[in-house]
Amino acid sequence: MQFDLGFLGGGQLARMSIQAAQRMGLRCLSIDPDAASPASQVAPAAVGNLNDPDALASVVESCARITLENEFIPATAIERAFAKVGRNPEALMPGLETLALIQDKLLQREALEKAGLAGPEAVAIEDDGTRAIATIGFPMMLKSRKGGYDGKGARYVATPQDFEDLRSLWQDGGWMAEQYVNFSRELAVMVYRTPQMVGCFPTMETIQTNHVCDLVYPAATDASEVAVAAVEAVQGWGLYGVELFETSGGKILVNEIAPRPHNTGHYTLDWGGPSQFEQHVRVVLGLPPAPMDGLPTCMANLLGIAQPGDWRNGLLRALASDPGIRVHWYGKAESRPGRKMGHLNATGGDIVARARAAREAFYSGWAE
Ligand SMILES: Nc1ncnc2c1ncn2[C@@H]1O[C@H](COP(=O)(O)OP(=O)(O)OP(=O)(O)O)[C@@H](O)[C@H]1O
Ligand SMILES: [Mg+2]
């Protein structure tokens, strides 16, 4: 085999996983439709459509182990790619069945419910939506069953009129209605699971702004039991980000599972213990996971802004503002308002205030 590890998808999650793998001396390949993807800047990369089994087959053929950067690549396309080159799909982690469950938010919800895990009720929107409205009521979340990220496939729907106004979205199928949860906060846990052991990174509190993850810091609570049960409910092996809602009564509900490194685990690049990317690489290769040990760290996302100047000004301003800040930039070719361009981590002292202040310095420098 030419490569030790192949990544289907070449965004920032692949890039940071590849960087972790390279430090261990491993050879990596990624595939992405964008020739200038973040991963292509740090390792060899193929260019191809991720829905195309022929394109995927080129990676499957030349990599000893294969993993995913996102959950949007149809499990059927990956299965065909393995069949084309006569390889057993067991070289893939997460597995095809888990991926197929997770990539449809409704099937995922049903699997969680079947395992007895609490979460918002959801049903498919069929015909004119009457049954969905009768079952879920208002307010509700309208969600695309497949392909949503950063809230792009999710809408808050307060009234029957709002539901009707969004008819063009849901009328052709593929959407679900979900009970709206008036949570007191959102939590997230990174879980790693191998046949030998299961473990978790610390439980984090996450703040979303406009449905996009904004700040992440330790939650001072432990939701790992529910997070592990969620991963078990989808028969997941490998590394998973589990998004949770905590109610005012302290009840933990499962929002959703991501079968890969996750934005809420980016702080682990600088917390002093193993990073989620290193752990991901280890478990995909069948190596024992590294033990957990690290310091409280806060992560702030650096999102694209309207009418930016030079992003380097922003990064230099943030770095100069606080020598304890660590910055990670993804090298995306194009910035768009709200797009995840990088993140920064603060460890020590008032981590949330420091991360916020450094981010302000970043935005003010970038806007000049
Ligand atoms: N049932 C719900 N009740 C209340 N708020 C919700 C519900 N579902 C989602 N949200 C809010 O919308 C955000 C995005 O929703 P969700 O995680 O389902 O979508 P996504 O597009 O897959 O997001 P991401 O890529 O950011 O994980 C959640 O983090 C939460 O803040
Ligand atoms: Mg989410």
Description of the molecule:
This protein has 3 domains: about 5-90, Rossmann fold; about 120-180, ATP-grasp fold, A domain (Dna Ligase, domain 1), CATH 3.30.1490.20; about 185-365, ATP-grasp fold, B domain (D-amino Acid Aminotransferase, Chain A, domain 1), CATH 3.30.470. It has 12 helices and 17 strands. About 30% of the residues lie in helices and about 25% in strands. Strand 9 (about 185-195) and strand 10 (about 200) form a beta hairpin. The protein has about 375 residues and is an alpha+beta fold. Adenosine-5'-triphosphate binds near residues 120, 143, 181 and 186.
Quick structural overview:
With 368 residues, the protein is of the alpha+beta class. It has helices at residues 12-23, 53-62, 75-84, 96-102, 105-114, 130-136, 160-165, 167-170, 224-233, 276-284, 311-321, 351-367; strands spanning 3-8, 28-32, 45-47, 63-68, 122-124, 140-144, 154-157, 175-179, 185-193, 198-200, 204-209, 212-218, 238-246, 252-258, 297-303, 325-329, 340-347.
